[in-house]
What does this fold into?
Amino acid sequence: MNFRGRYKTENPGFQIAPMIDIVFLLLCFFVATQIFSQWEMSIDVQLPTAQSGEVPDRLPGEIIINVMDDGAIVVNQQRLNDESLSALLGRIVGLFPGQPILIRADKSTAYEHVIRVLDLCRKVDIWNISFATTAVNTTS
It folds into this structure.
């Protein structure tokens, strides 16, 4: 009794379903980890302290504007002047109304530099603005 001769096994060929699964999982991984690449916590900005300071949940697509102690503005690790920041914010608001902005100002930054950034945000109709602080260490 030769059972092998009756049934011929065919080569299954290239399986597309597992390939689609792997590509989908890679896409999910890169989308999930992409938000961590946008956090600009490595820039040397000494944040002011506040009693109610806490680390809020990050909003998706939140733009971080760093105001250095000399008044320089850094966004995505690029120094921008007032005109280029205004143009960037104008393009973003045109695409995404209600875009959240986080302003990280150094604690030794003059108040006028922070107001200058706020004024630029207001001119392009950005209203969803938050400020970064650190919590006061009360364990001492």
In short: Helices lie at 16-34, 82-95, 111-123. The chain has a mean pLDDT of 79. The chain has three helices and seven strands. Residues 16-34 form the longest helix (19 residues).
